[in-house]
Amino acid sequence: MKTPLANWSNSRIKHLAQVDYGLGQPPRLSESGVPILRATNINRGSISEAGLIYASLRDLPLDRAPLLKSGEILVVRSGAYTGDSALITDEWAGSAPGYDLRITPERVEPRYLAYCLLSSVAMQQMDIAKNRAAQPHLNAEELGEVTVDLPEQSEQRRIAEFLDAETARMDRLRSTLARFDGDVHEREQAVLAQMLHPGTEKPGDSLPNSWKWTPLAHLTDQFRQIMYGIVLPGPNVTEGVPIIKGGDVAADRLSLRTLNRTTREIESGYARSRVKGGDIVIAIRGSVGEIAVVPDELTGANLTQDAARISVASEVSADWLRLVLESPAVVHQIKQRVTGATIKGINIWDLKRVLVPTPSLAEQASLAASVSRSLGTHEALRSRVARHSALLTERRQALITAAVTGEIDVSTASGRGIEE
Predict the structure, then answer these.
(1) How many Å apart are CA 400 and CA 388, to the nearest integer?
(2) Sign of the C-alpha dihedral, residues 199, 205, 211, 212?
(3) Which residues pair with 74 in a beta bridge?
(4) Cβ distance 113 to 17 under 8 Å?
(5) Separation of alpha carbons 216 and 294, rounded Å
(6) Quick one: 236 exposed, middle or buried, by C-beta within 10 A (0-12, 13-18, 19+)?
(7) Among 148, 196, 331, 381, which residue has the fewest nearby CB atoms (within 10 Å)?
């Protein structure tokens, strides 16, 4: 690899730090104690408390996996987020890693190495390593082979301090965008509640004349009932049948280009759960309740056990049902039926029995059109926020990459190849 500056060197991580495995098999969980950081808690250098699990200190195998210390780095070892990482700070010192990898820096500034791992240069190396296996996976040896560019330690600290300040500024802006998106979402929910179940919050509340509370199962095609799909889809294959996972619904990834695929042999045993254009899919594990409409190009695709198909009955307006499934009265029922501590989900039996405030077919079509018009401005705003947030994320990584490869001089924050 080309060294960016004459006074910089190029080193493998294994020569700068100790790379170890985490706990492996998770310990017995408890409601409090030591938090167990997992892949879902790590996102682009930050650690989230969302969905934290805990274990009692006496149940942790400290002889094999000591508690984390400030200055160590946790790296996701497998799954969709393989290679993502975060620096452990005082706030998280003592937390125990799950299946993931931990780096203990020895001859490098920890903050600088943490930023190196977030750069596109390191991510590309990890992408090559993790994709050698059938499923994304990164082992300690492969992570140790990743190379980083190193200036002297005084310059490492200067770069880290510069990136601390600049990424914090970007993260504050991203938080502002997230709050604005949340405000718009609340307004959307208010519109849905006011128009799709006026004056009601839960089943049993009185509805307008001619309306009724209807189990979701009664609003679907009785020949294509609500169901989930393939339990063990196997590794992703280049040629095969597209499969929709729960995370695909939440991330709005329903396209031939982005979905994983399973073999036709595996899929053939789950013909009853195939989808077609116009079906509604709902995440039933993980991001429970997220919904999306299947595009025509995915007719014939299938599901995993993390997503369920809702095929709309011919006497029901598909546009109305999609909207009402996102309304507060229905969302509240779904959340009430969610079970599980580590992996949360809703079973099909409970999903079928969710009660939907239902008007006549003629009213359904009229309501769907009115609500769509009312939500048009909100959706446009949220789309713009999403674009700005994505652009901010790209620029954040570009800045990190430029700083840790010597593309910019952090004392002037200017250099070659970087646009404002």
Answers:
(1) 18
(2) positive
(3) 86, 102
(4) yes
(5) 18
(6) middle
(7) 381
Token representation of residue 194? 């006011």
Confidence of residue 51 (pLDDT cuts 50, 70, 90): confident
Handedness of CA 140, 145, 147, 151 (dihedral sign): positive
- Give 57's pLDDT tier (boundaries 50, 70, 90): confident
pLDDT given at position 405? 94
**What is the per-residue pLDDT across 222-251, written as a single tens digit (0 to 9) for each?**
999 999 999 999 888 888 999 999 888 976
Q: Are 174 and 389 in contact (CB under 8 A)?
A: yes
Tokens matching residue 283: 């995440």
> How many other CB atoms sit within 10 Å of the CB of residue 358?
24
* Stronger pLDDT, 20 or 253, i.e. the higher one: 20
Instruction: Please state the φ and ψ torsions of residue 72, each to the nearest 5 degrees.
Output: -80, 165
In the structure, what pLDDT confidence band is assigned to residue 213 with cuts at 50, 70 and 90? very high
Tell me the angle at which helices 110-118 and 361-404 cross, rounded to the nearest 10 degrees.
130
- Nearest Cα to 275, choosing from 220, 337, 216? 220
Q: In the prediction, which pLDDT does 200 show?
A: 81
| pLDDT for residue 247 | 85
Residue with tokens 């975060």: 86
Residue 395's CB is within 10 A of a number of other CB atoms, namely 15
Cα–Cα distance, 46 to 170 (Å, whole number): 13
Backbone angles phi, psi at 30, to 5 degrees: -140, 170
The two three-digit tokens of residue 370, written as one number: 């009115």
Task: Find residue 304's DSSP bridge partners.
Answer: 230
Q: Give the residue-averaged pLDDT of 66-74.
A: 91
Both structure tokens of 401: 């990459």
Q: How far apart are CA 115 and CA 104, in angstroms?
A: 14
**Strands 53-55 and 414-415, how do they pair?**
unpaired
